[in-house]
Amino acid sequence: MPDPAFPQAGAMVRLSTPDRGSDPRAAMMGAVAVREEQLGKQAVEARRGRVFTLVALVLAAVNLRLAVTSVGPVLTEIRDGLGMSGTVAGLLTSVPVVCFASVGLLAPRLARRFGAGPVIAGGLALLAVGLAARPFAPGSGLFLLLSAVALAGIALVNVLLPSIVKDHFPTQVGTITGLYTVALNVGATTAAAATVPLTGGFGDWRLGLACWALAALVALPPWLLIAGERTAARAAQVTGAPPVRVARQPIAWALAVYFGMQSTSAYVIIGWLPQIYRDAGLSAELAGVLFATTSLLGVPLGMGLSALAGRVRSQSTIAVGLGLFGIAGYLGLWVDPATTPWLWAVLLGIVNTAFPLVLTMIALRGRTPATVVALSAFAQGVGYLIAIPGPILIGALHDATHGWRAPLAVMVGLMVPQIVAGFFAGRDRQV
Description:
Layout: H1 9-16, H2 24-62, H3 66-69, H4 75-82, H5 86-104, H6 107-114, H7 116-133, H8 140-168, H9 173-202, H10 205-210, H11 213-229, H12 231-234, H13 236-239, H14 250-279, H15 284-296, H16 298-311, H17 316-335, H18 341-351, H19 354-365, H20 369-387, H21 389-401, H22 405-425
Helix pairs in contact: 2-8, 2-9, 2-11, 5-8, 5-20, 6-7, 6-20, 7-8, 7-11, 8-19, 8-20, 9-16, 9-19, 14-15, 14-19, 14-20, 14-21, 14-22, 15-18, 16-19, 17-18, 17-22, 19-20, 21-22
């Protein structure tokens, strides 16, 4: 019979190793460990989700200008192949701005109903269809219509990408905006440079133009996944919010005017800068290189400027500084384009970075993704409407005066409202 003064071995084990399930502290520590493990997995999944969204953003941004820049290099072949008149060719150059202005204004309503992700996916699908079908149109009218289909898709994506940046990267708005505007510039430059070689390789301008639909098809699957898997969780912030009446907000008008003024300057540079240099006696080759310089400068400068703009509370000083560079560049062309043509090209390349700046400001001025959608649609829609007359007016002035001094004087003058609007748009305010 065991001695009661000495417990048995099993009892000693139980006394020396108490049951963890009966110890509140051990249970709490176990729960904390499980919670930390869950949070760790959620953090990893969140990082993967942001990387996936970033890839989707970049792929979409690559497509935002190539539908426009791929046409110019083969416009002669298009006109010959379709029997396109000069009037229709002129309409073709104005369709992008009209589509960006009109269709872009519909984006907030569509986003509230379907979510931003599905609308972006739909925009990319429209772009792919338009790009693939328009080269095979039997006539110039249908070519123009299918171009409008592709550009309508671009307009929807244009407006909604800033809200995706605000939603998924709220603390990195400037950096991410700069990254996707760099992708936009790369896509535009690649299409402009590669369309003619592709046409030569295929032996047909239709195939050389249609192959750009592949870029939209590559960008589409990630957005289909986003639309299918994340819309309920993410787009609720857009669809569940009441419409924001941004037209009553002074900051929205400042953004719209600034967007319109910088678009006017950009389209004048795109449309007329090479001709200004050629009329000053420079060769066509050098004029093309100088024009390319203004575009290529936007890649590093746009990235750096957007990152800087996202880190400071007010972007007014940056906007004013860019306007002063623009005044200097246009004044230089007014005095003599041929004296220091590289300097004027660099100055105009700097002022062109107003585009990534205004996209960054749009994302920063809205408190929520829903507000950013509304601000983006208003600023881009109204801004593109403001920009429509600019390139036409400059061309008409050139024809009327048989020179470039009057048009360039107008461009110097237009830098003033751009500076004023940029100052007010850049102030530390939110809607």
